[in-house]
Every structure is written in C-alpha cells, then in structure tokens.
C-alpha cells in the first residue's frame, strides 16, 4: 500500500547538510498496522512528514529515494497531486491536535471543509456525515459540538475530533504520530480501541509512530525500529517481543515496566542519548551505548540483514 524505499531527508544546518533520516526502507501493507518505534530524536516524525511533504515552510528539506503509493512515487509528484492525496487517500494524526485544528473556525466547519474539498456531496449530506463521524469517534452531543470552537474542548475531545477529521474521507493510509502520548492512560486506551474498531470497519492501513512498546503490542502486526535515522530492526510484533535481535531493541524492552516485575524494582534506562544527525561515527550508530559493541562495531556500519524469515537487523552481533 505504502512503500518507502531508501528515503533520505537532508536539511541544511549552519552551512552543512544533516540527514535525520538516512536510507530508510519499509512497507505498510493493505489493512496492516505497522509500528515505527524509537526514542525521541530518531527521525520518526521526519519520516512521517516526508510522505505527505508536510515540512514547515522555512525548512528546506531535500528528499531522495522513493515513496510509492497507488502506483506512483510521491516524491516525484507535484504539489497539486499531493494536495489531492492529503487528507483523502493518506491522512495524518499528530500528537498535538491543534496542529491540525484551526482555532478560529468552528469544529463542524473544519470537518465539512475536508469533505467539501475532496467530494462532490451536497451540503446537507456533508453536514450529516460530519455529525455521524463525530458520534462514531465517541463524542456525545455531536449536533451541538459542530458549533463549538476547538479551545472549548478537552484534550481528549480534540484528539477525537482530529481522528474524525482524518477518517472522514476514508483514507487508505493513516499515519499516526504519537497520537496518544499527550493523553492520560484511560483516554489513551479509549482512543486506541476506537482506532482499532475504525480500522476494522474501513480496512485502513496504519503507520503508528510511537516510543511506547505497549502501543506497539496492542495495535501493530509489524514493527520497524529506528535509531539515529536508520532502520535497525524489523519484524512481526511477536518476533520482536519474543526474539529481539538488535541490542537497541533489547534495551528498549528492558527500559519498559513489566506487569509481572517486582514492585519497586528499578527499570534499566539506556545510558547515553541518541547521537544528533551527522554526529555518529563511521560504525554502528548505537555502538557508543551498546553493551555488546566490539571494535568492528565502532569502525564499520553493519548492513540491515535478514536473520530469520521476515526478520531483519542491523547488527554485527545480533542476539
Ligand atoms: N525542519 C528541520 N530542520 C532541521 N532538523 C530537523 C528538522 N526537523 C527535525 N529535525 C531534526 O531531525 C532529528 C529527528 O527528529 P524527529 O523526526 O522529530 O525525531 P522523532 O520524531 O523520532 O522524535 C532531530 O535531531 C531533529 O532535531
Ligand atoms: Mg516525533
């Protein structure tokens, strides 16, 4: 459904070029949910923004590789073609709903605009679909809500409005960038349930960006683990949890509280931090933080290799 091939994103920074996404490849199949996992600063959001080219105006991003969708390469598509795809075929949900919602317009108007741009439906039908979708995402009093402004809603309600907006045109692909990170756990669980139900109803393919292994376990079939702008491991969710191969994935697992862990037992934080783009050495980008690192790891970049059917890892000494 969506094939990202050798994607590289470069920004000019202080006269030199940095690449926060550096040769990333993965696919999201039809009706599949793929998790994109990694610590903050690994390049997950930049990868997501590349698909619909949603970078801030000021940032002069240079993209190379290919992003294949529906028989074409989005990187080679013009702005008009992309505008036709955004929101209709591929929709995005962000961590912060106010990046998608306009504070100056009533909720109903913003949703109706989406359908107005992408469909020829008559006004009455559009309004009916907007109210129905708001009800579908669990918002009570939808008929009144359409007349309210985003600021009068709670964070959880805004997130639901944004999901409603994203799903209104029944997109084939939904890209969710940390959609529940800012919400408390109860609301988070409700929103994830909702997304699972909607996916079942609409057969949407989902790219679920998160740093939360719990979200991956609950929502995804496959996982792509990113580190410092590269894919370091990819497998099914079951394989990743049962047989994590890359030491970085191992470390992420140990940094996570388990239900059966002794109360009060310390979590193992990963020492150090993700090297900023352009500052990793020639070898494996995780080498400086890796308990298994040998000389070769610091000198030579390991290739991403298949270590079992459907399971790849970028490591000289995979588990
Ligand atoms: N517009 C931009 N210009 C320059 N650097 C950027 C820009 N956007 C993101 N970056 C850098 O790219 C790296 C990856 O960022 P990001 O994709 O947001 O990480 P993640 O979503 O995994 O937390 C960071 O080091 C960030 O500072
Ligand atoms: Mg991000």
Automatic annotation (TrEMBL):
Record domain ABC transporter: where: 2-253
Gene3D superfamilies with a match to the protein in the record: P-loop containing nucleotide triphosphate hydrolases
Pfam entry (one): oligo_HPY
Family designation: Belongs to the ABC transporter superfamily.
Record PROSITE patterns: ABC_TRANSPORTER_1, ABC_TRANSPORTER_2
Keyword Membrane assigned: yes
Membrane topology term: Peripheral membrane protein
Localization in the cell: Cell inner membrane
GO molecular function, one term: ATP binding
Protein name: ABC transporter ATP-binding protein
Major subcellular site: membrane
InterPro entries noted in UniProt: AAA+_ATPase, ABC_Ni/Peptide_Import, ABC_transporter-like_ATP-bd, ABC_transporter-like_CS, Oligopep_ABC_C, P-loop_NTPase
């Amino acid at each position: 459904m969506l094939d990202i091939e050798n994607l590289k994103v470069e920004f000019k920074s202080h006269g030199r070029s940095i690449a926060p996404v550096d040769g990333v490849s993965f696919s999201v199949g039809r009706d599949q949910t793929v998790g994109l996992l990694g610590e903050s600063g690994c390049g997950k959001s930049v990868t997501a923004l590349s698909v619909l080219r949603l970078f801030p105006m000021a940032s002069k991003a240079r993209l190379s590789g290919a992003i294949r969708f529906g028989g074409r390469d989005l990187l080679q598509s013009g702005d008009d073609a992309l505008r036709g795809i955004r929101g209709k075929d591929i929709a995005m949900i962000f961590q912060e709903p106010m990046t998608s919602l306009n504070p100056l317009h009533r909720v109903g108007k913003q949703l109706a605009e989406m359908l107005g741009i992408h469909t020829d439906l008559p006004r009455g039908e559009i309004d009916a679909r907007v109210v129905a979708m708001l009800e579908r995402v669990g918002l009570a009093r939808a008929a009144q809500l359409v007349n309210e402004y985003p600021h009068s809603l709670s964070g959880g309600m805004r997130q639901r409005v944004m999901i409603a907006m994203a799903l209104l045109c029944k997109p084939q692909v939904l890209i969710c960038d940390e959609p529940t990170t800012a919400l408390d756990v109860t609301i988070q669980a409700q929103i994830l349930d909702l997304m699972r139900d909607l996916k079942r109803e609409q057969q949407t393919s989902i790219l679920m960006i998160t740093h939360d292994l719990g979200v991956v376990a609950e929502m995804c079939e496959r996982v792509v683990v990113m580190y410092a702008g590269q894919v370091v491991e990819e497998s099914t969710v079951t394989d990743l949890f049962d047989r994590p191969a890359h030491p970085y994935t191992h470390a992420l697992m140990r940094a996570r509280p388990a239900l059966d862990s002794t109360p009060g037992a310390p979590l193992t934080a990963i020492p150090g931090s993700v090297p900023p783009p352009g500052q990793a050495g020639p070898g494996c980008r995780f080498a400086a933080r890796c308990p298994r690192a040998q000389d070769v790891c610091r000198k030579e970049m390991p290739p991403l290799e298949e270590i079992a059917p459907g399971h790849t890892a970028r490591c000289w000494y995979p588990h």
